[in-house]
Amino acid sequence: MDYFLQQLINGIALGSIYGLIAIGYTMVYGIIGMINFAHGDIFMVGAFIALIAFLCLVAIGVSAVPLALFLVLLIAMALAALYGWTVERFAYRPLRHSFRLAPLISAIGMSIILQNFVQIAQGARVKPLPPLIEGGHTLVEGANFAVRLSNVQILIVVTTLVLMLGFTWLIEKTRLGRDMRACEQDARMAALLGVDIDRTISLTFVIGAALAAVAGIMYLLYYGVVDFFIGFVAGVKAFTAAVLGGIGSLPGAMLGGLLIGLIETFWSAYFSIEYKDVAAFAVLIVVLIFLPTGILGRPDVEKV
Amino acid sequence: MSTPILEIEHLAMRFGGLLAVQDLSFAARRGEITALIGPNGAGKTTVFNCITGFYKPTAGMIRLIGDHKTMLLERLPDFRIAKLAKVARTFQNIRLFPGMSLLENLLVAQHNPLMLASGFTFFGLIGLRGFTAAEQAAIEKARYWLDRIGLLARADDPAGDLPYGAQRRLEIVRAMCTEPVLLCLDEPAAGLNARESAELDELLLFIRREHATSILLIEHDMAVVMKICDHIVVLDYGVKISEGTPAYVRNDPKVVAAYLGVEEDEVEEAEAQVGL
Amino acid sequence: MSQEAELQKPPRVDVVAALKSALLAALLAFGLFALLVGVRTDQGPTGALVISQRFEDVAWLVAVVFAGSFLRALTFGDRPLDLARYLPAGVKAAGERLDRFGGFALLGFALAVPIIFYHNRYILDLGILVLTYVMLGWGLNIVVGLAGLLDLGYVAFYAVGAYAYALLAQNFGFSFWIGLPLAGIMAAFWGVLLGFPVLRLRGDYLAIVTLAFGEMIRLVLLNWQSFTGGPNGISGIPRPSFFGLPFIEGEGGFAEAFGLEFTPTHRIVFLFYLILALALVTNWVTIRLRRLPIGRAWEALREDEIACRSLGINTTNTKLTAFAMGAMFGGFAGAFFATRQGFISPESFVFMESALILAIVVLGGMGSQLGVAVAALVMIGGFELFREFQQYRMLVFGTAMVAIMIWRPRGLVGTRAPSVYLTERKAISSSLTREGRG
């Protein structure tokens, strides 16, 4: 029971990270109907920027962890947003009216570029970071197992909640959110009504990238190590989460993220850790075959 | 009075909270041109989609009385209805194969007999004679139909290059290449000018006459409907409000009211306003 | 303003505007590169990370971006980048003639390669590599180019073919000529198995599911140690023989039987012609199938699936057939790969391979046999040429993928040839062909 509880906690923390990345996928798919293959690598880039920013801050003397983390958050979000904007502007926008496979191939190319760019710039070896946030709380002291809730996990969940709330507010209450929802429904009509499509789409990518950067920071704090390849697997899992929750639905992305995090954690804990990635892929396949609109998605009726 | 070829009984189609078609019953007779008319949103294309298997109706029965057997269509998948029941259709938004030539479009329509002749590809792969003959016959049939609609000279041009009216006609003869017993046309006259409309009338009458194909069509163009149809069914908000010969339907006050968008008793007033 | 009018406008030489856009570009570059390039992290002596600065590199990059952006703004102003205008007319005309004679020219060249480059082992190996990808491209072309199904997991069938052959050869001692068709059948079987549940998915979803399948198969191969050897793979796969004559020195060998002096080149040349033959078979079958109802149905499926269904075509079976055919040829290629290398491991079957083969098909101009062959030659050949720039190779590759999609999204070959014609075969521009939603 205690073991179960621990896995539950771990799963929620991991799931929050996936959820943050999944939001980027679901927003972009909702607004331009495209799977942003390179999104996972934006997450990776965000993690690297956070790492470097942190090391730089330490080097110039800012060693108070909360302050450093806060600055790192800002820097990583801003720069990852820049990457997101650049990718959209140069690799996707020219292909917006082209046929379906073109942006997909372009996205794959972009993913390759990002992975190798980081690999060349920073080397192929893993980058470890000593744990920045230590300590935690023992929730239950069992006979041979203590259930711990670490401070990092609390930080992850709290940050995710705050961002989710802020984000929901953005989508529901602001002009930008309204524009995004309009573009999602009927881009041409929205344009005719004066919505700046290019700007709205760019901002969608920017926000998605910023959230992915936060996920990157969380990943860095949680696992303490990054390398240039974390984007691929995390990307597929986060995409699975987006599909599971219902592509195009924001609460769905978060829900899907949590579910995938839980599935992965429980699978590794109770079955086999080598095949944990297989579990995620299997979930993706099962969901797409039996429930393609996901849990919270809207059913898609094709007009004949 | 010829025998019925298509019998619809108590057809209903519900989309979530919306009841698009309600308790609809009518029959289309063999060798006749039957029209399904009604204001926009009346559920006409929904009925078509139910008949041709693109939607599964919520309730009701659709019976096709073919030459040798009777089939129930409401549970058959779309391609089976086309293949086995020999019900062909065209679409409101033309669905040709734009990147393929006219000839290719018409050959795709003859896919099933050709597949059989090619021994499901195996014999065709090794060049058995039987297939070549079948393919020649198929090309001849395509040639016949292209000639009928005056597009033989453009047989090798891509279908996407054709002007709108020609595309409509091509879609109809492509459906005819499947040798259907019932041809369902969804707004075949939409977007056609007067001359093209007249050509369409001629084509449809030709089909009925020479190929003994029954036709069911959805149409808004009253000139076409009144001119060539033998029987008309009128829908409004998913319910049948009238049925009969063109003369009868044209004068039915219920129909007039539906089209004017007013209640039956306000028809006279509305007509006066409009100047009828 | 229409595109042509835009392009014909004389360029507005506005230095100030050019400077402004160059400055913005430079600023963007600075933001992107300052941290990731400017600060290098390495593992120091204690294992913790130490940073070192590389600000000169950043400065260089920013300067290059500034200069490039300035020049671009100066020459093209606010018009879209259109390099094609600057190609001399002669090159364009040559490009058109290539369409017609290119196929035969390439075939002739391919046949002659082992003769011309007999002593250049590197070129022969490269040729074998290119031809393998040509065959894979032609195989995937059936699925993606003809039937319009987005398959991002093609490498799975390549892997199934390779492993099937390897395991059959090792455990049952089957020769290549028996193992090859069996591998193809296994792969086709998997194609049907994988295809059946997923083929009703649309577009991007199908792409992702096939990607997931591809990755799953790789992971299973990687972890199922007892059966597949896990990360160590399977080694000691029997080398091919010349219809029973092994390529060994001395008695009973190929060299002895033909009265030639033994050299390992014999086996390589044999492999070259073998893969060429396999690829040509793939090509021949594809061309034949295109003219048969099934091939026409594939292309019609790509154009409009609903119209196909309304004509009585069972689109599920049609899709499955395309999938299975493509898988089968992938399996054949896999068997060849196994026998050529003598050793296979899951490392050779990563997602990158699927992406590469898909890029070859899309770049070639979907459905065009010649285009796919040329694309394979350009991409694989080009890839190998950059071998010295080991690290930057992939980066250039990725950039090329993006650039080519932006420049020629329809691929190198811009037209489609109808499979049957009444009076004359007119090429149909690919702007009219649909790319498939399924």
* H and E order of chain A: HHHHEEEHHHHEHHH
The string of secondary-structure elements of chain B, in order, is EEEHEEHEHHHHHEHEHEEHHH
| Total domain units of chain A | 1
The value of Rg of chain A in angstroms is: 19 Å
Helix proportion of chain B: 40-55%
Rg estimate of chain B, integer Å: 20 Å
State the secondary-structure class of chain A: mainly alpha
- How many structural domains can be distinguished in the coordinates of chain B? 2
- CATH architecture descriptor name of the largest domain in chain B: 3-Layer(aba) Sandwich
Q: Assess the beta-strand content of chain A as a share of residues.
A: under 5%
Q: How far apart lie the N and C ends of chain A?
A: 53 Å
| Low-confidence blocks of residues of chain B | none
- What is the arithmetic mean of pLDDT of chain A? 87
Kindly state the number of beta strands of chain A: 4
How large a portion of the residues of chain B is in β-strands, by DSSP E?
Answer: 15-25%
Helix content of chain A: over 70%
What's the CATH topology label of the largest domain in chain B?
Answer: Rossmann fold
What is the terminal-to-terminal distance of chain B?
34 Å
Protein chain pair with the most extensive contact, residues per chain: A-C, 69 and 60 residues
Major beta sheet, strand line-up of chain B: 6-7-8-3-9-10
CATH class of chain A: Mainly Alpha
Feature tags:
heterotrimer; A: 304 residues; mainly alpha; ABC transporter involved in vitamin B12 uptake, BtuC; two-stranded antiparallel ribbon; 11 helices; 73% helix; B: 276 residues; alpha/beta; Rossmann fold; 2 domains; 4-stranded antiparallel β-sheet; 10 strands
Description:
The complex is a heterotrimer of chains A (304), B (276) and C (438). Chain A starts with a helix and ends in a 14-residue tail after the last helix. In chain A, the strands form 2 sheets. In chain A, strands 1-4 form a two-stranded antiparallel sheet. In chain A, strands 2-3 form a two-stranded antiparallel sheet. Helix content of chain A is 73%, strand content 5%. Chain A has a single domain, classed as ABC transporter involved in vitamin B12 uptake, BtuC (Orthogonal Bundle), CATH 1.10.3470. Chain A is globular and about 65 Å long. Chain A has helices at 2-32, 39-59, 65-92, 101-122, 151-173, 175-185, 187-192, 197-223, 230-245, 250-270, 276-290, and strands at 127-128, 136-141, 146-150, 225-226. By secondary structure, chain A is mainly alpha-helical. With 276 residues, chain B is α/β, with parallel strands linked by helices. Helices cover 41% and strands 23% of the residues of chain B. Chain B has 12 helices and 10 strands. The longest helix of chain B has 20 residues, at 129-148. Chain B is globular and about 70 Å long. Chain C folds into 2 domains: 3-86, no CATH class; 122-429, ABC transporter involved in vitamin B12 uptake, BtuC (Orthogonal Bundle). Chain C has helices spanning 3-8, 15-36, 55-76, 89-116, 121-146, 155-172, 176-198, 203-223, 225-228, 254-257, 265-291, 293-303, 305-310, 315-341, 351-364, 369-385, 390-407; strands at residues 39-43, 49-53, 234-235, 241-242, 245-246, 343-344, 415-416, 428-429. In chain C, strands 1-2 form a two-stranded antiparallel ribbon. In chain C, strands 3-6 form a two-stranded antiparallel ribbon. In chain C, a hairpin with a 5-residue loop joins strand 1 (39-43) and strand 2 (49-53). In chain C, helix 6 crosses helix 14 and helix 15 crosses helix 16 (369-385). The mean pLDDT of chain C is 83. Classes of the chains: A mainly alpha (304), B alpha/beta (276), C mainly alpha (438). Chains in contact: A-B, A-C, B-C. At the A-C interface, helix 2, helix 3, helix 4, strand 1 and helix 9 of A face helix 2, strand 1, helix 8, helix 15 and helix 17 of C.
